Amino acid sequence: MMKYRKCSISAIAVSSVFLLAVSVIILAGPSAIPNNTNISTADSIDVKNKVDQLLKEIIDNGPVASSNPYDYLKDSKAFDELVAMGNPALEYMFDSFAKSHEDGLKEYIMASACAKIMGKYDEQKGIGIKSGREWFYKYGVFAKDADFHIIDADYELFKDTSGKPKLVLPAHTDMKNMEDVIANCILSINRRAYRMGEKAIEAHKIYRTEEKDGIINAYMLVSFRWFGFENNIFTSVSGGGGEPVRMQLKKSDNGEYEVLEYKRAMDGGIRAQSIREMFPQDLAEVVIKGDEKTYKELWDMQVKKAQKYLEEINRAGAPVISHVAKERADEKASKAIYLVTIMRREFPEWNGTREILVNAGGNPPGIKIRCLLETDCISASEGQYLVTLTKTWGIKINGSQPVSYWKYKVTGERVELIEEQDKDDMIRIIK
C-alpha cells in the first residue's frame, strides 16, 4: 500500500506539471505547437516567433527617412514589449547573434533590447557604440559565462593586495626579509599590469643598495612574466624580460621593511634619460647599454621557479620555453578563427590548446578546476571553414567528465553555429 501511495503522488505531480505546461501553450495560441513537437520545444519556438515578429514590427514601423537606428526605438510599443519578454527573449537574441555575422539595423535593435534587459542600457547614450554586433562581442557573449571566474594559481595569496590605493603585500610575506619583501612587491604590482596567465613568476637582480637617512635605495633589473599552458607547453604568455627599477624601503625598529616607492624606467625615446635620473651614473650606463648575461640569468631563475611549480601540480615533464610556435595556417583560416574566437575570447586564436583555471562552487576560493580549451579549424570547401571550439573540464561529476563544444561554419564574414554540446551547467551546479 505504501508503494502504491508513492506512485500515486508522483503521478499526480507529473500530471499537474504537464497540464500547467499545456495550459501555457494553449493560451499562447495553437500555432505555438507544430506537429511532432514536445512541450518544452514549443515554448522556445513561441519565443522565437514572438521575438522575430516584434523585431520585424520595429523595423517596418520605423522612420523611413532616418538613418539613426535609435529613432526606431523611440516611442516603439513593440520595442517595449520585446524588452518586457525578459530572459527568454535575451537568450534567443544571444543565440541569433552567435549563429550569424550580420551587423545591421536588426542587430542594433537586438543589442539595445538585450542591454535594457540586462540593465546595461543608457537612456542618453543607448548601447554606447554604433554596432550592435560589437556590443554583443563586448558584453552579451559573456553573460552566460559570467558565473565562471578565471583565476590564477596564487589567487588566494594575492586577492587582498589588488585594488588598494596603497601597496599591500600578501600576508605570507616575511616582512623582516628584504629579498622576500622585494619579490612580493614585484609580484603584487605587476600582477595588475599584464594579461593574466596561470602562474606569475618574478626574478630580479639587485645591482646595488644604498642607505641614507634611514631610506634604502635598491637598484635592480626586474623580470616579471605570466606563465601558462599553451599546446601542453608551459610558456610565457605576457610580461617582460628586464625592466630597470628603483625601489625605496625603510626598515623599522622591529626589523620589518616598508616599501616607500617602486619606480620603473620610462619606455621609448626617454628611456635612457629616465634611467640616468633613477640610477647612479655608473649603473645607469650599464643598464642603458644592456646586459645580456643578466637577462639570461633572470630567465634561468624564472625557469627554475616554473619547474618547481610544475612539480607541485604533478606536471614535471612539461617543457618550459619563452615562446610557443602556433599553427595559424593560411590567412583566410586565421581570419575564420578570429571571427569565432572574438565571441569566445578565452579560446586559443590558433589551431591548438590553452589551459585555464576556473573557480567553481561559489565565490573564491571555491573549487579550482583546470579547463582545457581547444581550437580546431579545417577547410570545408573553397572559402569555407569549420571552426570547432572544445572545452574539456578536468573533473568528473558522477563518473562523467564534462565536455562542451561549439562548431561554427565560417563563409567569408558570415559565422554560423551549426552544432553544439554545452555541458557547462554541470560545473555551474557545483556547490
Describe this structure in words.
With 431 residues, the protein is α+β, with helices and mostly antiparallel strands. Helices cover 37% and strands 26% of the residues. A six-stranded antiparallel β-sheet has the order 1-7-8-9-10-11, covered by helices on one side. Strands 2, 3, 4, 5 and 6 form a five-stranded mixed β-sheet that branches. The chain is elongated. 27% of the residues are buried. The N terminus is likely disordered.
The stretches of 5 or more residues where confidence is low (pLDDT under 50) are 1-41
* Series of secondary-structure elements, N-terminal to C-terminal: HHHHHHEHHEEEEHHHEHEEEEEH
Structural class, judged by helices and strands?
alpha+beta
Gross geometry: elongated
Taken as a percent bin, the fraction of beta residues is 25-35%
How many β-strand stretches? 11
Mean pLDDT: 84
| Sheet with the most strands, sense and barrel status | 6 strands, antiparallel
Observed structural traits:
single chain; elongated; 431 residues; alpha+beta
